[in-house]
Amino acid sequence: MNKNFLWKFVLIVGTLLFFLFGIFGKPSSFSRQGLLDALADHIHLGLDLKGGTHLILQVQVNDAVNVVAQNAVEVLKEQMRTRKIDYTDVSQSDPQNNPDQIALKGVQPSARGDLLDIVHERLPDYDITGGAQNTWTLAMKPASLNELKDKAVTQAIDTIRNRIDALGVSEPTIEPHGMGQYQILVQLPGIDDSGRVKDIMQSTAMLEIKQMTDGPYPSEQAALQAKGGVVPADSILLPGQCANGTEQTWCFVSRVSAVSGKDLRDAQASTDQNGQPSVTFSLTGDGGQRFYNFTSAHVGENLAVVLDNKVQEVASIKEPIRDQGSISGGHMIEQQAKDLSMVLRSGALPASIKYLQEQTVGPSLGADSIRSGVRAAVYGMIAVLVFMLIYYRGAGINADVALIMNLIILLGFLGWSTIAGVNVALTLPGIAGVILTVGMGVDSNVLIFERIREELRNGKTPPSAVDQGFSHAWITIVDTHVTTIVSAAILFIFGTGPVKGFATTLTFGLLANLFTAVFVSRFIFDWVLSRKQRGEALSI
Amino acid sequence: MEFFRNTNIDFLGKKWYFLAFSLIFSVAGLFSMLFWHHIPWGVDFRGGTLVYVKFSHTPDDNAIRADMDRAGLKNVKIQRYGVVSNNERLIDLDVRETNEQALDQGKLTIIRALETNAPAGKTDLNNASFLKIKSYLLDKDPLHLGSDADQKYGAQAQAIVDYRDKVLGGVLNSADQLQAAPGVDRAVVASLPDGFFVSDFGVRNVEIIGPQVGSQLRTQAGLATLYSLLGMLVYLGFRFEWIYGIAAVVTVFHDTLITVGAFSLTSTPITLTVIAAVLTLIGYSNNDTIVVFDRIRENIKLMRREKLADIVNRSINQTLSRTILTAGLTFLTVLALFLFGGEVLRGFSLALVIGILIGTYSSIAIAAPILVAYQDWRIQRGKRPMAMPAGRSR
């Protein structure tokens, strides 16, 4: 073996060992079971094979924008009061579609400078433009608006991750999804009971403690009637357990909250004095101080614990409280108390979420899919290997070695992705991608072999036929691979989970094919030729 | 061994037959898409609720429909899924216009409606999750465990679920079957009937797709197909002359049309994986076309005096062995997928089976004749005939 052969040989064997390690790592034993276990450890299965829940959530980012805009409206009002600017109205002009826009009406032209100052100093994220008849429009700067929306998605992902982690789901995937549509992809392997998980994720868990100003009333109409049909300016009307009974009642609570979920330091499930499940929470130093001020000022009055705009419980303030509180009522069962405390600990969602898509794959289906996918792959592979042996004889061995190595590199790549922590998952379409790689990969061998046969027929010697065969086929092989990989790349960008798995295995399989069908196969030919007498025929 | 040696078939002479064949299939598919079955979008594209159920005995579809009617679910489609002996049904609730909440409710309603003989207060063991079984065992504590109850009952619940799903294929006939499950304590099995009953079905897969996602996906699928075709056009235009790119893209479009048309004619749902198969075909079908084009380009340089039609014919014949072989081998693998790959991949492998046949045919019968037709057209208009040779070659 000359020097040129040697380094190629070392490269090929090295590559083989590298990817074999990717597939099996260091197996505990070389028995069938040991190898299978090692394989299961290294090849990360997709949700469709493992079973589990796949969800796509829409983050209602406009919620987050609304909060900022409402705050901006308050800032404007307050600043205009202090600077003594008269105005007739400040409000969001189109909260549904353009929640960031604020319309300001009836401002005297003389106040222009002051107004620009306010926006410049206090609302740096806003642009202000003047309109006809003393109106002004404030709109968020596009960059700030996008940043705010992106942040809402990031925050939602963090919050959901905290909640899922507390549930003890192993290896969940929670990541942004789609392009610029503010969607989140959640994959929970092994969870086939999506109901509870969805409740937990969806809970905005907006906790507020407010003063109950009036009530309870048996219905919304009754409450409104008592106030002459108008809700007082400093109050809002909410449904819930205003009388701490089982029926829904309505009551008026203060618009401002004494403390909210942001002020929580901790929350734990516990039981109240009647032995009913409840949630105890403690407040941060700052929140505790505010709660103390509030409770001191309102001893003897009622406070309402409001969760997601529903009154959870009403209690009378017997003495000032500093940093502890509890939520009972609502007839929670123990599980609900645990879930609520967990959700409160994980923080509130910055915006509400909506479920767009859900798929739950039962583990029995996953197991069936693996079985049939692997069976199809093995049969397809055997058919191709046998055909190549019969049709090309000696060269068939060459092609079969290249194909098997192609497969090892592909699986090794999946294995290495697990070792590297990227976790490229093998999905059912991914297995189909493996099968297709075999079918399309052999294309390169056929292309080369047919060309070599043709050159031999034209009277070339075996070495020169092999040389011509490879060099002529090379450009065509590159062309065919590029077109398939272009398709696969588009699939990768546009597809989700299972389809992405297909695009990945197909792309990587074809890339590996360039190495095996050209480099490895050529090496084998050269090596066989070097051992033959001059003029001896080539088995092809 | 060799199949096609020195063939000399006049492919271009048969172009009218080819044209007729292609036209019949494309027009039939197109008509079906427009006026008959339309495009049979799968649930992922149209939105709706799909519940895959496996029964422990041969189900009576009429009884299922009656159950659904009683639960207030109209327009429910019930289809057999997989082979008869699997006792599997696909219950399809088409809710195009309603919101996500209604779809979620639909799933629960379907499952409730099937639990016809559910005793009050008991949970269905066939559809109980690991978490539910575990928390039941923790409550009930049949083994009187101390500190590590959580872990031990977790293992018991997992063993029960594994046996049910992986060994019995998802459905228990009775709780007693669990006696045979490895790693499940007898006392645990004995305690189950207090909290669980055994229904005659297990839910294997649920898909709920909101209408918003569905329409979004349809747009994306259309765009992805368009981008793929454009990508091919640009790449081939860059590698060959632009007329080669156009010929290849027209060919691939023809393949796509016939494949999708076949799905429409047979009313087979087009799911996300089917689109994946179609996109793959766009790439794959081009392979054959490129191989033929490469050879035409090579031969144009070698045989300067001959007519383009002869060169094209010669090139097709020279590459015929390779074309048939590779298509045959890929077809073999795809056929294995179609026959043994299971029900989940049925649509995907069907698209590939049809697409590979059509793709191979079209690279011979459509792509190359377009090149010749283009040149004839140029000659008729009195331009120089040889305007389309090699193009850039490396």
Protein described:
The complex is a heterodimer of chains A (540) and B (394). By secondary structure, chain A is an alpha+beta fold. Chain A folds into 3 domains: 3-50 and 363-531, Multidrug efflux transporter AcrB transmembrane fold (Up-down Bundle), CATH 1.20.1640; 62-145, Hypothetical Protein, Haloacid Dehalogenase-like Hydrolase, Chain: A, domain 2 (2-Layer Sandwich); 207-324, Gyrase A, domain 2. Helices cover 54% and strands 20% of the residues of chain A. Chain A contains 15 helices and 17 strands. Chain A has helices at residues 3-24, 32-42, 47-50, 61-82, 112-122, 142-167, 194-202, 220-226, 285-297, 334-346, 363-392, 394-419, 428-457, 462-494, 497-531, and strands spanning 52-59, 89-94, 98-105, 126-130, 136-140, 173-177, 183-189, 207-217, 235-240, 249-254, 259-260, 264-271, 277-283, 302-307, 310-316, 324-327, 353-361. In chain A, strands 8, 9, 10, 11, 14 and 15 form a 6-stranded antiparallel sheet that branches. In chain A, strand 12 and strand 13 form a beta hairpin. In chain A, helix 12 (394-419) packs across helix 15 and helix 14 (462-494) runs antiparallel to helix 15. The radius of gyration of chain A is 34 Å and the shape is elongated. The relative contact order of chain A is 0.12. Chain B is α+β, with helices and mostly antiparallel strands. Chain B has 2 domains: 12-42 and 210-380, Multidrug efflux transporter AcrB transmembrane fold (Up-down Bundle), CATH 1.20.1640.10; 48-208, no CATH class. In chain B, 60% of the residues lie in helices and 8% in strands. Chain B has helices spanning 15-35, 43-46, 61-70, 100-114, 130-140, 149-167, 186-191, 211-239, 242-265, 272-302, 308-340, 346-380, and strands at 48-55, 76-80, 88-93, 123-124, 196-197, 201-209. Chain B is elongated and about 95 Å long. The relative contact order of chain B is 0.13. Mean pLDDT of chain B is 84; it is low at 387-394. Classes of the chains: A alpha+beta (540), B alpha+beta (394). At the A-B interface, helix 7, strand 17, helix 11, helix 13 and helix 14 of A face helix 5, helix 6, strand 6, helix 8 and helix 10 of B. Strand 17 (353-361) of chain A pairs antiparallel with strand 6 (201-209) of chain B, so a sheet runs across the interface.
